Amino acid sequence: MLSKPSTTNETWDGARKAIFYLLSTLSYGKLLLSSLSSRAWLEMGASDTLADFSFMLLLHHTNCRLEEGGISKKDSLLVGSSYQSGDVPDNFVDISALWDRPLFLLRDRALDADRDHDALVPYLQLLKAFLTHSEDHTMSILSSPLAKQSSILPPITSVGLSCLASLCSSKEFTCASASKMQSSVLSVCPREEIKSAILSLLHSLASIVEFVRPRPLRNVQETNEAERLWIRTSFCIIPMIEYLTNLRASVDFQPVFDGVGGKNYALTDVEAKEILDSGLFRELLAMHAAAGKYATPSVDCDTKSPSPKASDVARAKLLRTIYALSIASPEILGQYAVRVPDLANEVQSTRFMEEHLTDAILWTALSSFLLESKSDSPGPRLKLRVSTKPKAGDSVDEKSMAERSCSSFMKLCTLAQLAMGVLKDNITMSMEGDLNNEAVEVDEIDRHRKSLGDVVSFSNCLANSNNAVKIWIRSLNNKEGIAQRAKEKIIELRSVLANIPSYSDDYKTSCTGHKKDDSDEEAEQENFQKDVVKQREASSVHKRKQYGTMVASVRSSVKIIASALESQKECGLSMKGVVQCNISSKTD
Length: 588
Description:
Blueprint: H1 12-24, H2 38-44, H3 46-66, H4 100-111, H5 120-133, H6 135-142, H7 155-169, H8 190-200, H9 202-212, H10 220-245, H11 269-278, H12 280-293, H13 310-328, H14 330-337, H15 341-347, H16 350-355, H17 357-371, H18 401-432, H19 442-464, H20 468-477, H21 482-498, H22 520-567
């Protein structure tokens, strides 16, 4: 079509419109490109062509947006120069605005498991080009005295971050088959290719995190823009780190990869050393500290339990990700993290231990493991130096970190027992049909569900991390008697769970008899009462099912914790059949 254009398309405007039309209909599914074999795709050079075309269009589109008026003043096939910002016609065509069409086509080919992901390597090379192209621009801004006033990440960098994060979260590359060598012409292993691409970008990612780190700005508008920037960036960086550690710490410590043998893909010491040397780990810690220091003030809310701010959620997920890196390599990354004064002040404060119970147990156990571990050699012990002053209200407990970890664990078990009792009573009232007293306060129900969720998260961390059990058990052994207290508390929780009834899911509703010859008014009243009974029974059955699922999840989690305490083997657990249950409420 392009080799023999019509007379209409022989002009620049006509050619642009023809190309614009072709790009607007470009789709991997519509064009049935999945029918092309890997050999035919490779011989055509389709991946390289799409990658080059995407890069050219995105770069041109970005430059156009940065120029005055948003229109390029250079004449090219992509856009004409005769249009100024003030006299752009209605039928103006900008081909570079469709930069995402070839990019998404290449992405869809890379995700195609039926074609053995034969376009994955070119797609990863394109994303690396996106992230490294503006590295000099980013570094020049950081070295500029006006760096504090900049809160705009280059668009081409933002595209690379979001695409790579989406790739790390896609089920096509987290399933069991992604760890196998594909039988395509290129013979690639998707999981290894993605990990290799992330490791090669560590220095670039460190520069990006440093660029978006919150800084003191002049007004509230600039502060809000900078806050949105670091939040978006953190949500892109976290999936990449989780792909390296094979642990979704931000989502209840679930493993990233499916299938047996997922622990074999945990972070190695060599990879941990690369992360530390690149400066990425340091910048993640600095961004977490700066996000808390320069956070925007909370807006007053009339509700009893306002939804958490996006910055608070991002900081919590970032802290979990930092912890996942720390336990993946405690001697390299963990030693570095526990020495950071800002982080130590926060995770060891009394307020943190009250608001984030699971994280408090894990962080104090890690600190005890690294700072208080008993050693056969009489050499000097590692001491934690805290030079910064804690925030107002963040008092630090004078007990040892091992004692604080055990105290938090015992509190976790106590809250779980209380939650099981309250939820059981709520179910009982709903079965008895007490509609007025059936609904306990929604905030109270959510709080108790969170308590049970903390138990599940803690057990998942023990089950899905190679070093979590070793760190926790050694921290309990650092103080005489606290390991036995933890055992007694988990035994008490198991006895409570043993007395919890197992509600059956096949709850049968009451049968109604044959309707007698009553008046229409009595029949209507009877039907109304029947509807009320049916609604009450349906609500009761739904609550009982939810409660039964929660009980099963907590029982499985308590079994894992008890196994870790009873074994005393300082190695990771490989428990099968861990119940993955979302016990959070819909209002979370």
